[in-house]
Write a structure and sequence with these properties.
alpha+beta; 446 residues; six-stranded mixed β-sheet; 19% helix
């Protein structure tokens, strides 16, 4: 393969060294040409090197300068492959470090944007993708160790070639191959006794599934998110004067309302109409009526907010996260359902940004999706209250002197008694109950 370089600069002063670089891209190769110009009394002299990541050959280059002669020569350096050092990205202001969890091993081939590792912070997991296609040649930090922003993580040898994707095996048409007869079970092998002083270690994967009656114990490291959750819950207990008040909601009308509009809602928005949007909107309605529940204690001051940002508790395999719905007071049922669905999908995939969980003036936890009958939620600091939703169950209640069976839900409000009086908390929860049982009062502003 030959390359042609043409240089026509005549205005350079003497004894000036100039370094240039050009890149040619074709379908089969990626060529980089580096040239250094030595300008002296005898004329111009170029020394060039061509690097090709597709063919490991010494390449000829023809040099054509606006001078009396043209030179053609062969590079003196062979091809080399670039080694890139990948560092940790910058975290949000409230996050200082995280724990590394590698998903690729040394020697694995990766394509550009393949996730090589995740940095697990106390709020979310930050994926670190490969900046180019290549091979991982070295880990610069051990798996599970804490790292800070900008710290070097691993080295990548850039090859420009993505690993081949596994092709699906074609299924032959016609009769399926008969199943192979099951092999006879191998006789059990006696377990080897462990060396004295070295107890056998069990694999830390899924400890709950390892309960087989052997009376062994497995110790696994608590992930950073779980540690942070435990710390914040204990801080909430130590700081707030928490008190919980209860009520029950007759879900008959909202269930009928949901059934009546479910098909049209799903057809228009491609989203199911659930029970979260009525409770979220009812909470915003009640927070506007009782602004002290939306406030927070800051030192010796009380901070009142004229906006309503509601945190929705979402359970994930790594722990509980609370993405925030912003400006709920200006949202309708459809806006709330769509935003909850989008944030919930991000939470389950581990792609929530820290900014999507920061803030929040009030929280809602829905234990009813797991069949909870009743519970006392814990405040999400620095907020002052949290609403706990529970399961809907048919129960006998008295209506106008008659015992009837109605679908009922217990609701609980845990609040900071230092700021919120019992009267305000009871009125607030009653307002949610009334708005859910008859959503028309929200539109009338009653």
């Amino acid at each position: 393969m030959a390359g042609m370089l043409q240089f026509s600069s005549r205005s350079l002063p003497r004894n000036v060294i100039r370094l240039t670089s050009r890149i040619w891209k074709t379908e089969n190769c990626h060529v980089t040409v580096k040239a250094r110009l030595y300008q002296g009394l005898a004329g111009r002299s170029w020394v060039c090197r061509i690097e090709n990541n597709a063919t490991r050959k010494r390449l000829k280059v023809q040099q054509n300068v606006h001078h009396l002669r043209t030179q053609q020569f062969q590079s003196t350096a062979g091809l080399y492959e670039e080694i890139q050092t990948v560092s940790a990205p910058h975290f949000a202001e409230s996050v200082s470090e995280g724990d590394v969890k590698f998903q690729k091993e040394v020697g694995d081939a990766v394509a550009v944007d393949d996730v090589v590792l995740e940095i697990e912070t106390d709020k979310t997991s930050v994926p670190v993708p490969a900046p180019a296609s290549g091979i991982i040649v070295e880990r610069l930090v051990p798996d599970g160790s804490p790292v800070k922003a900008g710290q070097a993580l691993f080295k990548l040898k850039v090859t420009g070639v993505a690993p081949p994707k596994a092709a699906a095996k074609p299924v032959a048409a016609g009769k399926a191959a008969p199943p192979k007869p099951a092999a006879a079970p191998a006789p059990p092998t006696p377990a080897k006794p462990s060396a004295p002083g070295k107890p056998a270690t069990a694999k830390p994967a899924a400890p709950a599934k390892a309960i087989i009656g052997t009376r062994s114990e497995t110790r696994v490291k608590m992930n950073r998110m779980r540690q942070r959750i435990a710390q914040r819950l204990k801080e909430a207990q130590n700081t707030n004067a928490m008190l919980t008040t209860f009520n029950e909601v007759d879900m008959s009308h909202i269930i009928q309302f949901r059934k009546q509009h479910l098909e049209a809602f799903q057809k228009k928005y491609n989203q199911k109409f659930g029970f979260m949007s009525p409770f979220v909107k009812a909470s915003a309605f009640a927070l506007q009526d009782q602004p002290v529940v939306n406030a927070v204690i800051s030192g010796s001051d009380i901070v009142y907010r004229d906006y309503i940002d509601i945190s929705i508790a979402v359970a994930t395999p790594k722990g509980l996260v609370v993405p925030v719905l912003r400006n709920v007071e200006s949202m309708n049922f459809a806006d709330i359902e769509l935003e909850i669905s989008a944030l919930g999908n991000k939470a389950r995939k581990g792609t929530l940004a820290v900014e999507e969980m920061d803030g929040g003036t009030f929280s809602i936890s829905n234990g009813g999706v797991f069949g909870s009958l009743m519970g006392t939620p814990i405040i999400n600091p620095p907020q002052s209250a949290i609403l706990g939703m529970h399961g809907v169950f048919d129960r006998p209640i008295a209506v106008k002197g008659q015992v009837v069976i109605r679908p009922m839900m217990y609701v609980a409000l845990t609040y900071d008694h230092r700021l919120i009086d019992g009267r305000d908390a009871v009125y607030f929860l009653r307002k949610i109950k009334d708005a859910v049982e008859d959503p028309r009062i929200m539109f009338l502003g009653l």
